[in-house]
Amino acid sequence: MIKTSEFSDKGALISLYDGFNIELSCECGQCFRFTPSGNGYEGIAQGTVFHLEQIDSNTVFFKDITREDFEKTARRYFDLDRDYNEANEYLCKDSIIKKAYESAKGIRIFNQNPFEALISFIISQNNNIPRIRGIIERLCEAFGTEISKGKYSFPNADSMRDISEENLSVLRAGFRSKYIIDAVGKVLSGEIRPEMLESLPYEDAFNMLLKIRGVGPKVANCVLLFGAGHMEAFPVDVWIGRALKAFYGDGPVPDFGRFGGLAQQYLFVYARENKLI
DNA sequence: AGCCAGGACAAGT
DNA sequence: ACTTGTCATGGC
How many C-beta atoms surround the C-beta of residue A196 within 10 A? Predict the structure, then answer.
């Protein structure tokens, strides 16, 4: 949650009660379009270029942003109004999550565009993060709009209406191309409405996503967590699977309730950092 | 060089 | 209901 905010012609200086680690948040695999730049990170989201600089663990500078753009996009996108202190207090009752949290303190779950999250996490399956980033950048260059020199927005479904196996080959996305085509088709037909996922109950939104070819439980949960505000979603990938087995054995995994997605993110960072198993 | 990657699917037990 | 092979591509 925001404690203080100062706006000037240079940008917005935002101080929080509950921490924001830019590097962790941008590198933890929740989003794929933020990269190191200058003193901080730069990335494209919501059709906007953001520049973030870390001042201290609770303070971030949004370079060159206006008050209007901050209020309209950044506040929501970077999840600045959520009370992470409350979430962390709840989650750290579990001693294992508490240990993971020490490695992942300051992560905020970004609120990505649901269509972008859907396509991005379809691309993510059986893939590695550097290559996922590359495929997404090529997708944006091919079908997005140029918002400044060499910087492209993530395309919407309509601007992808003419995609085919042939013109997707520039992405080098492999077998995922046909999944992208199916997803875009279902969005364009109205069978899937990404913007509705947030207001739907978790189960309904989850089952709707599974109708897309190439979307299974893991991808669906990532879309719900990172693109539809469902923080109870708990995506289980290979890393989380290993972490759960290592930490909880064959015993029961605690129910992290409405903060499951945040707990998952802590475990993900912790497992990878320690090259677990 | 070879293993593996923020999986899903189909075919086989 | 569980296991297994397969799917492109390339990062490390």
Answer: 13
